[in-house]
Amino acid sequence: MFLNFALAWIRNMEITLNIPDELARQVTPEGQDPARVALEALALEGYRTELLSESAVRQMLGFETRLEVHAFLKQHRVFLHYDLGDLEQDQATSQKARAKLLDENDSDKQHVE
Description:
mainly alpha, 113 residues
């Protein structure tokens, strides 16, 4: 069995895998395209080993949004790369949003009075 798929985001590179039919059937769930299964496995391993970013996985698999990537990773029990720097950035963003919301509420109250 020949598995052909193109990675469009890498200058349309085509990779061909030659796998015995029996092995391809063992690693491909019933009703799924073996080429897609191989592409997803490559994307998952690339993300797990931090060789691929979320954006690269999204492009590679043709997802429209980051949320689709997150759902795909979750389905395959792969955790998002999230470190202390990400947490600190999220906290700062949250604090700015909260302060803006409080300022808007205070402004609205002053207009009512």
